Amino acid sequence: MLTKALRGRDFITLRDFSKHELETILEMALRLKEDYAVRRPHKLLEGKTLFMMFFNPSTRTRNSFEAGIFQLGGNGHFLQPSATRVPSLEGEDVPYQTERISDMARVFSGMGDAIAIRILGDVVDWEYDKGLRVIKEFAKWATIPVINMEDNIYHPCQGTADVMTMWEYFGRDLRGLKVGVAWTYSGSTKKPIAPHHDVMYAASFFGPNIVYAKPPELRIDPEIEAAIKANVEANGGTYQTSDRFEDAFEDADIIYGKNHVCLDLLPPFEKEPKHEEMAKLFNKYKDWIVDEKRMKMGKDHIQYMHCLPCERGMEVADEVLDGPRAEATWTEAENRLHAQKAIMSLIMQ
Questions:
Q1: Sheet containing 49-54: which strands, arranged edge to edge?
Q2: Closest CA to 102 of 120, 82, 88
Q3: For residue 155, is pLDDT > 90?
Q4: Cα–Cα distance between 317 and 284 in angstroms, integer?
Q5: 158-333, what's its fold?
Q6: What is the 3-state secondary structure (H, E, C) of 20-84?
Q7: Are 283 and 239 in contact, with CB atoms under 8 Å apart?
Q8: What's the CATH class of domain 14-154+336-347?
Q9: Could you read off the pLDDT of 45-69 as tens digits, one per residue?
Q10: pLDDT attached to residue 82
Q11: Given this model, what pLDDT does residue 170 score?
């Protein structure tokens, strides 16, 4: 376990971290979860302040960060654009409405100990890398750590909680296990692709056999896909894709079933988001739902995972989500708390 290597680091994408560093975060998360279970105090960040900037609504992310920093002895400030001037990149300034990110980042740096940002989807007009550019601009100017609470491309806190959950159910060595990652139908065309990227990238450090099943019209980011493939193969596993939904389920140990957007119908591949066209595409695959019939194709101990919120009756059937094969989903949700406490405690010291 590393002791000082993560101090002061930004947590923007898991691709900035080595396997050893991720293992350190996961080991710390498990220790903090043990403390939480027996109500053993762990005020590792007493008197420290986390500025939480939410451009999007949130249930799990806000509450896990706010509860987490409190349990660590610190304080979280919940900030929304409506309560502050809107942070702006160079060239996007609007008098008396925005404030340049370079200015805001330095102000926060003088008042607290870390900045966490969630920005994606409609608030950036679905411009693929806009949220990430905003987060990186904060990191450029801040002298305190910056944490990515999700953008259009990455959701590193979720990925960390996902693999923590896999460790708890199946052990730290995932080699020989099959992780089926399946695109599922949704009536919404606004569900981000970031969780798919990071569940596969985080798991790839530990060598499972990953099968990503999706309609032929859909894909993940090719650069990230190449990184997942290279990483999992280097760690003793495999990566393959399929246009057949059931391929994710057959003989699987874990199913991660969730909808995501069609990248090719969003900027920069299209001038403007084409949500109506995307809805028509999705409607061709309404039967791509995680149900008991599909779950029975997996191993007897198969577990369903979803980052939540899920679309019941579209992404997953009630009988699955409310049954024993989805216990990992609720563990995964709780693990957001413990994983993020580990991240904060290691980088905010």
A1: 75-79, 49-54, 114-118, 146-150
A2: 88
A3: yes
A4: 18
A5: Rossmann fold (3.40.50)
A6: HHHHHHHHHHHHHHHHHHCCCCCCCCCCCEEEEEECCCCCHHHHHHHHHHHHCCCEEEEECHHHC
A7: no
A8: alpha beta
A9: 999 999 999 999 999 999 999 999 9
A10: 84
A11: 98
